[in-house]
Design brief:
- It is found in: Cytoplasm.
- Residues 43-182, 215-356 form the SIS domain.
- The chain is built from 15 helices and 12 strands.
- By secondary structure, the chain is an alpha/beta fold.
- The chain has a 5-stranded parallel sheet with strand order 4-3-5-6-7, with helices on both faces.
- The structure holds 5-amino-5-deoxy-1-O-phosphono-D-mannitol.
- 5-amino-5-deoxy-1-O-phosphono-D-mannitol is lined by residues 58-61, 105-107, 110, 113, 156-158, 242, 246, 359, 362-363.
Length: 366
Amino acid sequence: VKGGYDHFMLKEIHEQPVAIKDTYRGRLLVKEGIIRMAGIDDNLERILNANRIIVIACGTSWHAGLVSEYIFEDLARIPVEVEYASEFRYRNPVITEKDVVIAISQSGETADTLAAIKLAKSKGAFVFGVCNVVGSSIARETHAGAYTHAGPEIGVASTKAFTTQITVLTLIALKLAKEKGTISKSEFQHHLQELELIPDKVEKALLQDEHIKKVAETYKDAKNCLYLGRGYNFPVALEGALKLKEISYIHAEGYPAAEMKHGPIALIDEQMPVFVIATKKGHYEKVVSNIEEIKSRSGKIIGIVTEGDVDVKNLADHVIEVPETIESLTPLLTTIPLQLLSYHIAVMLDKNVDQPRNLAKSVTVE
Ligand code: M6R
């Protein structure tokens, strides 16, 4: 069942190149220069006329939602709010018929997300689902949707669901951007081409596994870890920290790199590993100066960098390379080493990787 892997989580991490391809198959038509998604095409007017998009989700799916906020605003120029379903449903939110709600859920059974959908529907919003499990409650409760087609995800720690959710949301954002005319033809085409190359690049990122294992060995006894990123990679920092927490039980926090000096920098000493996402595209110089600040306080730096990087390599204790891509697609690559790192640390600490304590794969009670 585990396809020769020791754990479902590792199997699912390695399935990502195929899962991402399955997600965009039949939708991403590079030669034709179009994105085909029935759930969007059939409701195009409604979606294009939206005042804003509200994304609701929990956990890792909420992190995918945060990534989508950058993509939707950047490419399609649509205002986006990303909400924890559990907060949204209980705070008497302002929702109108002009809102489009996107609900993201791997299982399609998360109680808070389901309740938030019902609330949004009762206020007249149009609700679009991004689910993995076909025929799930959320898939049925939403007006329209797009499946991620990631295949079954058994490990409690979500991996391929996250990258395939980002893939679907990117396709939607690109499609809306094209319809709205907020992206040039050539830029649109460039995005399609780059997205098509992502599965091979994920494959390449996975080849760093042995090196990542060594990094895991170095930091497996840490009591606390910080994860930093900016822009598109800020949500990846949150996701990296969540992955470490839930399967290795090491306390970890994700932060936007520039927020460090508003508090968390006080935590930094030689005991504190800081994982910094510092890819070439996207605020690179600013992240490098954040790294210098950590270094001057004796923090241990592990940089997630673009292949061939020099500046971060000179400053960091370790670097893990990922292939180059356009900025909006970097989360699909920078996530990979952070998943592997958490996996190896949890295995080294002899934790139950696939079924961590106190957690359920789908949270069907609030
Ligand atoms: O099935 P869902 O995507 O709605 O689940 C949401 C969260 O419960 C889930 O992402 C959880 O945070 C994972 N264990 C994270 O790895």
